[in-house]
């Protein structure tokens, strides 16, 4: 799943959010329930954590902050970098999953090759017919 770091339906981008419990960056999801359909929300990626927050709550704060001229070029760069870190954390998670699968395959390969050697040896002893 790819993180959404681009704009919501309005105009402000969805800034990345760290879990208050220290589990890294939250994932951004879109509500499917009728009452809040299409609304973005933050959810901690750690299964045991119950952190939840609507993205527009934070986005309204960011819009207010920028309208009061508190944002500067450095803050925009920090937001961009935080978004990139969140994307890289998600990519790392996917790579770790692939590595785990590759290790599982590598673990069973010797047994599979052993079976193939027995099967080929059996064919050769039967005279190849």
Automatic annotation (TrEMBL):
Domain GRF-type: 19-58
Gene Ontology terms for molecular function: zinc ion binding
Coiled coil: 78-105
Keywords: Coiled coil, Metal-binding, Zinc, Zinc-finger
Protein name as annotated: GRF-type domain-containing protein
UniProt source species: Colocasia esculenta
């Amino acid at each position: 799943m790819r993180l959404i770091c681009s704009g919501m339906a309005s105009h402000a981008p969805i800034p990345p959010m760290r879990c208050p419990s220290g589990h890294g960056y939250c994932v951004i999801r879109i509500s499917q329930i009728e009452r809040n359909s299409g609304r973005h929300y933050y959810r901690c990626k750690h299964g045991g954590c119950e952190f939840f927050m609507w993205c527009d709550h934070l986005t309204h704060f960011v819009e207010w902050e920028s309208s009061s001229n508190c944002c500067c070029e450095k803050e925009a760069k920090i937001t961009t970098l935080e978004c990139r870190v969140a994307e890289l954390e998600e990519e790392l998670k996917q790579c770790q999953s692939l590595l785990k699968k590759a290790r599982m395959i590598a673990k069973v390969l010797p047994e599979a090759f052993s079976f193939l050697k027995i099967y080929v040896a059996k064919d050769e002893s039967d005279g190849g017919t």
